[in-house]
Amino acid sequence: MAAATVRAIVSGLETQHPNATTELHFTNAFELLVATILSAQCTDERVNRVTPGLFARYPDAAALAAVEPETLEPIVEPTGFFRMKSRSLVGMARAIAGQHGGAVPATMAELTKLPGVGRKTANVVLGHALGVPGLPVDRHVLRVANRIGIAEGDDPAKVEEQLCGKLPAERWTRTSDTLILHGRRICRPKPLCAECVVQDDCDYFHALQRLARPIRPAKAKAKPKRRGGKR
Fold this sequence. Notes:
This protein has helices spanning 3-16, 29-38, 44-57, 61-65, 69-76, 82-99, 108-111, 119-129, 139-148, 156-166, 172-185, 203-211.
């Protein structure tokens, strides 16, 4: 799909989801990094219920680095996979405190070296907290981008590359937020196509239209004929 068409489609989606941004609550890059790690396989709403207490106890990397993962487990348990997440959080905090002077690094290469931090998490932090363009690709972005046809494939890194190649850098983060909200609200696994503002440009919608067939009324069953003869 041509870059101009992709930009026009994204602009259309932005009218349906104005001022789209991450739904995770944070006040600095460290808090967003922690919240994003916790958001794996968990809703943002549930993460937002856990993080206020967590940040009150451990407001920075130094404080979090000083505890053992087992100490965090009861706090982060509501987010699921709590043992793995506790290890990732403590490992991440110790790396930041020991190797980066307590400050969250501002490059993809450095962020993805931290325990528990993949490319998606790094892009979230870069784009929302550090002012560095990034386009996080999660399951919603994959689903929406493939259905509409603005990207192809199930590899997040390749879909990110395709989208970034067709959009100016200053639109990357907003585009991701818009696609995520569209995937949560409209283009769900069972999509609400009638509510989508870009259905006329959507490959998935057009495929559904081609497959659709008029439903014919069922034929009335013929009444069985009576056999002749007396009983």
